[in-house]
C-alpha cells in the first residue's frame, strides 16, 4: 500500500513538472524585463515590474550596486543595480521561433565595486549578430551628455527558439570589463516590409529579413511618450522632435480637434504607433509665401557605411480633400517621394499611414548626418502650400557580416575644452571664490524648470582680464537641453518645464544658472537697466568672475512675446557669424522666466552716435543676410532674412 502511494506521489510530481515545462514553452512569447544584478527585481517609477536576471545568466559574473545616483535617472530600477562580467558570459532566453523581438539594453556608467567606468569596453552579440563592439557606455554618455544609455534592436525570429545574448569584455583594453543594468526581450508583430531605396529607381530592400537598431523615434509636433504609454504593449519611447529641427524655420505644431477621431485601418494597426503620435503633427505654417522658400528639415547624426530605413508617420488633422496639402519628401537631398498627399494615401481625415524609405550613408566627409526635409509640391498647385509630419523613426540595417555596431561617439572639442576649463577653475579658485560650474552629464529632469532664455541685445565694450577671445569661446558648454532621455518630455507635463531651444542653437551656447545671472546683474537691480522695450528690460551685467561685460534681456511676463518669438530670436542669433560680432553665448532654464544674453561688440565701429545699417551674412544660409540697424553702440533692430519683419531691441 505504501509503495503504491509513493508511486502515485512521484507520478503527480512528474505531471506537475511536465505542466510547468509546457507552460514555460507556451509562454515563450511573453516578454522578459530584467533588472540585472538585482536579487529580487523591483518596480520602476512607471509601475513596471522588473525581474531578477539570476536564473538566465551563465558564466562568471558579479552583482553590483552603483555608488552614486545621477538625479536625471528616471528610476532606481533598473539603473542602480548592475551585472558585471570579467569574462564572456551569456543570457539564454526561450522565445517563440516565429516572432521578431525587441531587445533593449540599459546602461548606467557609474562606479561599481570600485571599478573605473572608463575601463569598461565590451562587445554584445545576439545569435550571430554583433549589436555592440568595443562599446564604452562612459564615452557614449559623456559625448551625448546623458547619464544613461538605452540601445534598442529589432531581431529577426530565432528559429531554434533560444536567444543567446553574450557580453564579452574587450581584449584590447587593460582591466576591461562588461556590464549591463537592464535587459528587455519583447516579442513584437512583424511591422517591417520592403522599403524603396532613395536614389535608386525601382530598387527595394527587404527590411523584414533584416536585424535593425533603432536610432531615433520621434513624436513630431508632440510631447514625450513614455514606454508605459506606448501602444500594443511594445514599450517604445517616443521623443520630442524639437532638438533635431534645422534652423529657425521650425513650422507650427498641430493638435487634433475634438471632432477628429484617430481611426486605424486594416493597413495600419496600433502596433505601428500609438494614437498620441497621430494626434499631433508639425506643419510648415499658414503663410504660403514663406513656405515655398524653405524646407521643414530635421538633421540626425548617424554611423557611416550603413543602410538606414526612414519611417515617416502621417495622419491628416485638417485637410479633407485630395490636393489640398501636397508636398515632396527628401532624404539626404535626394527625392524620396514627390507629391505626397496624405488624404490621397488614407482617403480621409484622422486615418494613420506610414511610408518607409531606405538610404545608404557612405563613409565620406560630411556623411555622418541624415537629413529629412519636406517642401510644398509647387508643381501640383495644391490649395495650400504646406507639408505635414506626425512621427519619424530611423532604423539602422545590419551589414552583410551581421554587424550593427558603430564607433563610440566622439565628445566635441568644445565639450572637452569646457571640462578642462571647469576642472582648472575648480583647482585654482580660492575658497568662496567664483567657480565655473562643471558640465552636468545627464538628461533634463522633467517638471523642475521653467523656461529662461538669455542673450544680449546691445553692443557692450568688450573687456577681459588677460583672457583671449579664443579661450573664452573654448569654454562655452554645448547643452543638449532636450536630449533624448526619458525625462525630457513627458505627456501631461506643463509646457513651461520643457526646453524650447533646438540642439543646433543649444550646441552653440553656454548654459548659465539663474543664480549666475542674478549675481551678474546685482539681482536685476534697477541701477543696471540700460534699456526698456515692449518685451522687457535690458540690463548690463558681468560674467566669468567679472571679466566679461554683457547685456541681458529679461522678458516681461505680461508682454505679448511668447516662447515662439524667443525661440526664433535664439535660433537666428545663434547663426550670426561676423568678425565684428561674437554670437549668442548662452541661456538658462530656471525660474519660469524668459531671459537671454550674448557678448556682442563692434570693432572699428564704436564711438559713432548716428543711426546706420550694416548687413551680416547668415551662417549656413546661402545668399541670406541679417540687416542690423545701429545707434551708437547698440543694435536697435535686426531684420530677419527672408521676411519683412524685424526684432526690435
TrEMBL record:
Superkingdom of origin: Eukaryota
UniProt keyword Protein biosynthesis, yes or no: no
Residue positions binding ATP: 553
Localization annotation: Membrane
Entry keywords, A to Z: ATP-binding, Glycoprotein, Kinase, Membrane, Nucleotide-binding, Serine/threonine-protein kinase, Signal, Transferase, Transmembrane, Transmembrane helix
Subcellular location, principal: membrane
Pfam families, per database record: Malectin_like, PK_Tyr_Ser-Thr
Domain Protein kinase: 524-649
InterPro entries: ANXUR1/2-like, Kinase-like_dom_sf, Malectin-like_Carb-bd_dom, Prot_kinase_dom, Protein_kinase_ATP_BS, Ser-Thr/Tyr_kinase_cat_dom
Gene Ontology cellular-component terms listed: membrane
Membrane topology note: Single-pass type I membrane protein
A GO MF term: ATP binding
Membrane-spanning ranges: 439-462, 581-603
Leader sequence segment: 1-24
Protein's UniProt name: Protein kinase domain-containing protein
Amino acid at each position: 500500500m505504501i509503495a503504491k502511494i509513493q508511486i502515485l506521489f512521484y507520478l503527480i510530481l512528474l505531471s506537475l513538472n511536465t505542466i510547468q515545462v509546457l507552460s514555460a514553452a507556451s509562454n515563450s512569447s511573453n516578454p522578459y524585463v530584467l533588472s540585472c544584478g538585482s536579487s529580487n527585481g523591483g518596480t520602476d517609477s512607471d509601475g513596471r515590474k522588473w525581474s531578477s536576471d539570476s536564473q538566465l545568466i551563465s558564466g562568471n559574473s558579479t552583482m553590483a550596486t552603483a555608488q552614486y545616483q545621477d538625479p536625471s535617472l528616471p528610476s532606481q530600477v533598473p539603473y542602480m543595480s548592475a551585472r558585471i562580467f570579467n569574462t564572456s558570459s551569456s543570457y539564454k532566453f526561450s522565445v517563440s521561433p516565429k516572432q521578431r523581438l525587441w531587445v533593449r539594453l540599459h546602461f548606467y556608467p557609474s562606479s561599481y565595486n570600485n571599478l573605473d567606468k572608463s575601463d569598461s569596453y565590451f562587445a554584445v552579440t545576439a545569435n550571430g549578430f554583433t549589436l555592440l563592439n568595443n562599446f564604452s557606455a562612459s564615452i557614449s554618455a559623456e559625448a551625448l551628455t546623458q547619464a544613461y544609455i538605452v540601445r534598442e534592436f529589432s531581431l529577426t525570429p530565432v528559429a531554434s527558439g533560444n536567444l543567446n545574448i553574450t557580453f564579452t569584455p574587450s581584449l584590447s583594453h587593460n582591466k576591461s570589463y562588461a556590464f549591463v543594468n537592464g535587459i528587455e526581450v519583447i516579442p513584437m508583430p512583424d511591422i517591417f516590409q520592403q522599403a524603396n531605396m532613395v536614389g535608386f529607381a525601382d530598387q527595394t530592400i527587404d527590411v523584414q529579413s533584416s536585424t535593425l537598431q533603432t536610432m531615433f523615434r520621434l513624436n513630431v509636433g508632440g510631447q514625450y511618450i513614455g514606454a508605459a504609454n506606448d501602444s500594443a504593449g511594445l514599450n517604445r519611447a517616443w521623443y520630442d522632435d524639437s532638438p533635431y529641427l534645422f534652423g529657425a524655420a521650425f513650422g507650427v505644431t498641430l493638435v487634433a480637434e475634438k471632432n477628429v477621431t484617430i481611426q486605424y485601418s486594416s493597413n495600419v494597426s496600433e502596433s505601428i504607433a500609438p494614437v498620441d503620435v497621430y494626434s499631433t503633427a508639425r506643419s510648415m505654417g499658414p503663410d504660403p509665401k514663406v513656405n515655398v522658400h524653405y524646407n521643414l528639415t530635421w538633421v540626425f547624426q548617424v554611423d557611416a557605411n550603413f543602410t538606414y530605413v526612414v519611417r515617416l508617420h502621417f495622419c491628416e488633422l485638417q485637410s479633407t480633400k485630395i490636393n489640398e496639402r501636397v508636398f515632396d519628401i527628401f532624404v539626404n537631398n535626394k527625392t524620396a517621394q514627390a507629391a505626397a498627399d496624405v488624404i490621397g494615401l488614407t482617403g480621409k481625415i484622422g486615418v494613420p499611414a506610414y511610408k518607409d524609405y531606405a538610404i545608404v550613408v557612405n563613409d565620406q566627409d560630411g556623411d555622418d548626418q541624415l537629413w529629412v526635409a519636406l517642401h510644398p509640391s509647387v508643381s501640383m498647385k495644391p490649395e495650400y502650400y504646406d507639408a505635414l509630419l506626425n512621427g519619424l523613426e530611423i532604423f539602422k540595417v545590419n551589414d552583410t557580416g551581421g554587424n550593427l555596431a558603430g564607433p563610440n561617439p566622439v565628445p566635441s572639442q568644445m565639450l572637452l575644452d569646457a571640462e578642462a576649463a571647469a576642472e582648472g577653475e575648480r583647482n585654482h579658485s580660492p575658497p568662496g571664490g567664483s567657480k565655473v560650474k562643471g558640465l552636468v552629464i545627464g538628461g533634463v529632469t522633467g517638471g523642475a524648470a521653467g523656461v529662461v532664455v538669455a542673450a544680449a541685445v546691445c553692443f557692450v565694450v568688450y573687456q577681459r582680464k588677460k583672457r583671449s577671445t579664443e579661450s573664452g569661446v573654448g569654454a562655452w558648454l554645448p547643452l543638449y537641453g532636450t536630449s533624448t532621455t526619458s525625462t525630457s518630455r513627458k505627456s501631461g507635463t506643463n509646457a513651461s518645464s520643457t526646453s524650447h531651444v533646438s540642439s543646433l542653437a543649444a550646441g552653440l551656447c553656454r548654459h548659465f544658472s539663474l543664480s549666475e545671472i542674478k549675481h551678474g546683474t546685482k539681482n536685476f537691480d534697477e541701477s543696471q537697466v540700460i534699456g526698456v522695450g515692449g518685451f522687457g528690460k535690458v540690463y548690463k551685467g558681468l560674467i566669468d568672475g567679472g571679466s566679461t561685460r554683457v547685456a541681458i534681456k529679461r522678458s516681461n511676463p505680461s508682454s505679448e512675446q511668447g516662447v515662439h518669438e524667443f525661440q526664433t530670436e535664439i535660433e537666428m542669433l545663434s547663426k550670426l557669424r561676423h568678425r565684428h560680432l561674437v554670437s549668442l553665448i548662452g541661456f538658462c532654464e530656471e525660474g519660469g522666466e524668459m531671459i537671454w544674453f550674448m557678448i556682442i561688440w563692434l570693432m572699428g565701429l564704436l564711438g559713432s552716435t548716428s543711426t546706420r545699417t550694416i548687413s551680416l551674412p547668415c551662417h549656413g544660409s546661402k545668399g541670406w543676410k541679417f540687416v542690423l540697424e545701429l545707434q551708437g553702440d547698440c543694435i536697435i533692430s535686426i531684420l530677419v532674412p527672408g521676411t519683412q519683419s524685424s526684432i526690435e531691441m
